[in-house]
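fwd from M.: "can u put these together and see what the complex looks like"

so here's what she sent:
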Amino acid sequence: MKPNRRAYVNAHLISPQQGLNGVGGLLVEDGLILAVGPQVTAEMVGAATAITDCKGKLLIPGLIDMRVFTGEPGSEYRETLATASEAAAAGGVTTMIVMPNTQPVIDDAAIVDYILRLARDTALVRVHPMAAITKGLHGELMSEIGLVQAAGAVAVTDGTKAVSNANMFRRALLYARDFDMLVVQHVEEPTLASGVMNSGEAASKLGLSGISPMAEVIMLERDLRLVEMTGARYHAAQISCAASVEVIRAAKVRGLKVSCGVSINHLVLNENDIGAYRTFFKLSPPLRDENHRRALVAGVADGTIDVIVSSHDPQSDDTKRLPFAEAAFGAIGLETLLSAALSLYHNDNMPLDRLVEAMSQVPAKLLGLDVGRLEAGAPADFTLVDLNLSWKVDVASLCSRSKNSPFERRTLEGRAIETVVAGRTVYNYAP
Amino acid sequence: MTTRNPRPRLFKSSHLLGISDLSPFEVPTLLDLADTYVEMNRGNEKRHAILTGLTQVNLFFEASTRTQSSFEIAGKRLGADVMNMAVSTSSISKGETVLDTAMTINAMHPDFLVVRHQSSGTVELLAQKVSCAVINAGDGQHEHPTQALLDALTIRRKFGKLEGLTVAICGDVLHSRVARSNIQLLTKMGVRVRVVAPSTLLPSGVENFGVEVFRNMKDGLDGADVVMMLRLQLERMSGAFVPSQREYYHFYGLTEEKLAYAKSGAMVMHPGPMNRGVEIDSIVADGAQSVIREQVEMGVAVRMAVLDALSRNKERAQ
């Protein structure tokens, strides 16, 4: 048998950019895809190659999660790159984009380099950092955008913080444009976002302070004017309401280089899930009402929303087992991203093609990554998916070091059963 | 004074407020005159009597070493009585307005007023109020005409011409009066002018200044005859306009490696004062291609020529 060579045959291949959606196989050699398509069968590859019979299971490009927070460096008790990467592998995610909100902040080339080396030595999946737009995430002075890019940062963002100073943000956009660097913004006007959940009836009944969807729309519209002035590439990290979908749609019609993401939580949950002050549903931006959720689903389906992210944000008991108003924002999600997204397919809200684009191919394109495609010559990063496998989310058995999952105790349908990064199997499902 | 025969006029304007005051025909005559002063300055007898009896006041509202001393030497070599007003230590600090200060000086009947001020347009405002010839020694982010003239003289003496050359002006164009005056003068004289800077240091609408705009040194310097570096103020390189000194040096600092993109033997200029290791590497600043010290020498000659030319206008007006 040839070493470093393996074939996956009899799979249902989906890779829209390559025009694949049907039965076929994939041949891997030395970490790269050697051949892919209907022609790759057990007979074609011959007996000298190790073969996995996929038995009609889905084979898709590995997921690229554009918004992952870990605790490394600085809060390793919440999550390390290693534990996050285990969760990613178990969830079919082959590339994690980690956020700069660490201690120290990822705002200079040395820390970018540190993250990349640490990931190389400890992580199961690919890791690329986004670096901070502003030094120390303080929103005042530009970080070294050119040098962090040269060190390997794939975009700049202040992560959970919006750059609210308009002139500062304008200059950062101008400067980033010279380097063709993607600028990713948390779209929320801070002075309008002092609440703890979506504003409206539910918040009022719970006696909690609200965050209006307008906090998001105002920041988004302002940003788009700055994008128009500067010609920069801009990505709204997460949008959460119907009006934002309309704003993005109109901006794309105007020809601006804009894109946006949405978290899987905002596509499958709504503010009613908060129930009796359940802090695992305290997210930023907050979960909105059902009408907004539906508008977001429609926005992904028609391509207005480009990307689905997990927004994986590990929080421990000390930050979550608190009165709702005092608890931290955020939920873990790397391991449940794919399964929760498949519910949109099972409910007939979204074709599989679109999910593969939004969770793999479009992120790769926006960030200039070589992965996210089933194509000869591409890195062999892919995920084998059993669409109909039911599993119950048991937080104790999740890989993530923190357990703040909003899908705790839910039964989800469909999941990753094998995850392959650079030809190497990093996860196999064992019930 | 009345005994002198009026000498031929060199340019129309009674002040030198900006390069915009000069026509493309006046610039070469002025540079020719400056050339003669370069030779005289290199000789043993440096004093001339052209401005004998005239008074030159250097009114510097913004601190300056090289420009002020250059104007002072220029005036003295032509025989004028030169007085330096260090305004920051005088009446302005007691609350007097710019115009009051100028009118006070005007009442003493100076013949030349050399003015530098931190606000664009101030020199022009003064010129409207005083009765002597006013020379702009730099106003805000607007113009610094004698710098552009001395740069043109330096270039012309090396290449023998201006027309057809390619000059790359690199760095903080946004805040630079040197860049604005140079762009005007050089484009007026048929030079192909490029500006090279990060977008955050380019003025809006710069593409309509008759220049080519580049955002990286490799493309911007490619084939240039002259590389003119601009000073980047310290307070502008820590995150407000560019992220840091080291990032600026990495991408926009003139190193030997980047200079190699320009024509072989290309001329390196800097108006001074330099930030070594920020916008320019010491090896380049002190290297064989650098004419930074010649620029200082040309500065005195050009300012003598300007004073000379303005005094001719004065004679004819009398």
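replying to her w this: The first helix of chain A runs from residue 42 to 45.
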